[in-house]
Amino acid sequence: MSDQMHMHAEHDLAPGDEEQHSVGVRILGYVIGLALALLLTGTSFFIAGTDLVWQPSIPVALIVLAIAQMGVHLVFFLHITTGPDNTNNVLALAFGLLVVFLVVGGTVWIMAHLNANMPPMDQIMRMQ
């Protein structure tokens, strides 16, 4: 029983450590990620510039392709996985997204509020 526990302990990794892979396997992963990213980018340009796709569905298709491309970048280039050693990376990514959504949402909210409450430009010119 102690031999089984010892063998299992050799394969455990500390949080943040990755298994050592050969250079060829790592390069193959990057090449696959690059190919998928180029394919998704080319597909986005094709959908945006063609009449073969039903026109009202183009924004939805572009959003789906953008989300797929974000997934490709997260998995192949940033190495974000669902493993227990990636908890800090996922939390940092979630916090970054929260900050971006707060900044963008706050900016849109402020601009909409200013647009609704500012007088028209000709009225401002008459006041002077």
Structure report:
There is one protein chain. By secondary structure, this protein is mainly alpha-helical. It folds into two domains: 21-79; 82-128. It has five helices and no strands. It has helices at 2-10, 23-49, 58-77, 87-117, 121-127. The radius of gyration is 24 Å and the shape is flat. The model has no long low-confidence stretch (mean pLDDT 85).
Q: In short, what is this structure?
A:
This protein has 128 residues and is mostly helical. Helix content is 73%, strand content 0%. Helix 2 runs antiparallel to helix 3.
Map the helices and strands:
Blueprint: H1 2-10, H2 23-49, H3 58-77, H4 87-117, H5 121-127
Strand count: 0
Query: Residue-averaged pLDDT, rounded?
Result: 85
Outline type: flat
| Continuous helix count | 5
| Poorly predicted parts | none
Keywords, separated by commas or semicolons:
mainly alpha; 2 domains; single chain; 128 residues; 5 helices; 0% strand; flat
